[in-house]
């Protein structure tokens, strides 16, 4: 991966969930120091700032370990042209904003939380998304979830919202 000290990192949806409830992911094993680092990664501070927080046993390799576990990714800053390209790649109808897309996804999921309380964790993940890229990442994890497998109509609904077939 090769992060630099100027890179800004964000938690993946799994990283967000793991930070608050590591026991829900028994296949992910990280040290207490790495979990503390994961908790303070906020998408605003560069790695250099995080290294200066005084956490023990933390170095550049620590970030690589978290990324390898799928808990963090590098935050990317996009130009307007890149955002439009991402919208097209997601299949979002031209002129439909990130906020409107996220709202439609949340609305569809909230209907399903009445039937399946496990969908609530996904509502929380989609609600925390701050960009179309993050919606796409969360959706890619969601479509393989047990919630989707138990409720195939939700996947159909979300595909329709995102303009996918």
In words, what does this structure look like?
This protein has 165 residues and is mainly α. The chain folds into 2 domains: 9-74, no CATH class; 80-162, no CATH class. The chain is 58% helix and 4% strand. It contains 10 helices and 2 strands, in the order βααααβαααααα. A two-stranded antiparallel sheet has the order 1-2. Helix 6 (98-113) packs antiparallel against helix 7 and helix 6 packs antiparallel against helix 10 (152-162). The longest helix is centred in the middle third of the chain and has 16 residues, at 98-113.
Key descriptive features of the protein:
10 helices, globular, mainly alpha, 165 residues, 58% helix
Order of helices and strands: EHHHHEHHHHHH
Q: What order do the strands of the largest sheet run in, or round the barrel if closed?
A: 1-2
User: Uncertain regions: pLDDT < 50 for 5+ in a row?
Assistant: 81-91
State the domain count: 2
How far apart, in Å, are the first and last alpha carbons?
32 Å
What's the gyration radius in Å? 17 Å
Number of helical stretches of at least 4 residues: 10
The helical percent reads 55-70%
What would the average pLDDT be, to the nearest integer?
79
**Which outline best applies?**
globular
Assembly type: single chain
The total count of strands amounts to 2
Largest sheet: 2 strands, antiparallel
Q: What portion of residues belong to β-strands?
A: under 5%
Task: State the secondary-structure class.
Answer: mainly alpha
